[in-house]
Amino acid sequence: MNFFQAIAQALTPQGIVWTLVIIALATFMHELAHYWGAKLQGVKVNSFSVGMGPVLARRQWRGTEWRVSLLPIGGYVEIDGMAPDTLEDGRMDSAKHGYALLPAWGKVAILLAGPVMNLLLAFLLLGGNFWANGVQSLRANRAVISSVVPDSRAQSLGFRSGDVVTAIDGQALPVQETVKGEQVGGWTRVQRALTVAGPHTFTVERAGKVQDIRFDWTPTVNGQRARLGIAYGADVKVQRVGLPGALAESGRTIVQAVPSVLKAFGNLFARFFTLNLSQDQGVVGPVGTGQVVSEAAKLGGWALVLIGATINLSLGFFNLLPIPGLDGGRILLVLVGVLRGRPLTFRQESAVTTAGFGLVMLLSLFVVVRDLSRFF
């Protein structure tokens, strides 16, 4: 299988469409929040573009030129006074109107509006999911067998759908353990046990009773991976909740996700500066995102809702990073101006922002290359 065939197999047309739709909506709401952050303070917004690149259509409405651009991969707003003015001789002069005249808190409010909107969308999407489908509590030290293949080795050994594996080879499944540097639930030990040849004992709970299933195992047969014939996953308990409980659980989920998100970004920067293209469970590129969305599209609506929440959560946190060129970096520059008693000049801010934007572009290129390297 060549490179392009591998990518085509990973992505589906439906997944590609949903990826573009989810990212476009997340970006549109992000930029719309910046727009309203400016308008509510009386600052004019010169243009609002849905998409990037060449403009396909434009219309003037309420003092703003609304655009539809060719590439459906983002969007932007041009806020009056945020960029310098161009003089008649072509030189750039620091703006003295609109955004530039706002106090520091007003500037921060505009910049913060975009990431906050993405986090709010993630909060609402997660809350809707919990309200509709209930709150899942994971017992990662238990593996539930969801199905047994007819006439398989598992069926002949006595495995049954609904069995709960609590121990393997006399050792209780842990809640969590480290495998190849990653923290995983103990239920994944089932798969690792089936890569080891020899006698195995699976301790299972069935209808309130505990029993052992013993068997000899050979991981490969005639060069092919042997299959026991079970489908399994973590033991998950679902509790129905009302809207207040769903929103409370959504808030807890987002707060609990902060360390994982920061760790993922930290790993990404560490790999970027060392040019380490190895894969991890952190930040993925466009193909990886499309692959995840393609799988979610097969499962239906709520799986896509959860993907939408994840993308909005990632976009919100990423834009809050204090890197010039991102909203968090612009906020940092505003705060630096407060600490020094006067805002940075356009030349100073432009130099720092350009460097930061260059870093973001290089980081994006690295993510894309690392993403594609999986298919070589």
Helix and strand run: HHEEEEHEHEEEEHEEEEEHHHHH
Distance between the termini: 10 Å
Q: What are the low-pLDDT stretches, counting only 5+ consecutive residues below 50?
A: none
Strand residue content: 25-35%
Number of domains: 2
Radius of gyration: 26 Å
- Quick one: how many beta strands? 14
Figure out the total of helices: 10
Class from secondary-structure proportions: alpha+beta
DSSP helix fraction: 40-55%
Largest sheet features: 6 strands, antiparallel
Shape: elongated
Subcellular location: Membrane
Cofactor: Zn(2+)
Pfam families: Peptidase_M50
Membrane topology: Multi-pass membrane protein
Give a brief outline of the structure.
The chain is an alpha+beta fold and 376 residues long. The chain is 48% helix and 26% strand.
Question: What does this entry look like structurally?
Answer:
- There is one protein chain.
- The protein has 376 residues and is of the alpha+beta class.
- The chain has two domains: 3-13 and 102-134 and 249-373, no CATH class; 135-239, Pdz3 Domain.
- The protein is built from ten helices and 14 strands.
- Strands 5, 6, 7, 10, 11 and 14 form a six-stranded antiparallel beta sheet that branches.
- It is elongated, with a radius of gyration of 26 Å.
- The termini are close together.
- The chain crosses the membrane at residues 7-29, 108-132, 299-321, 350-369.
- It is a multi-pass membrane protein.
- It is found in: Membrane.
- One of its GO terms (cellular component) is membrane.
- InterPro entries: PDZ_sf, Pept_M50_Zn, Peptidase_M50.
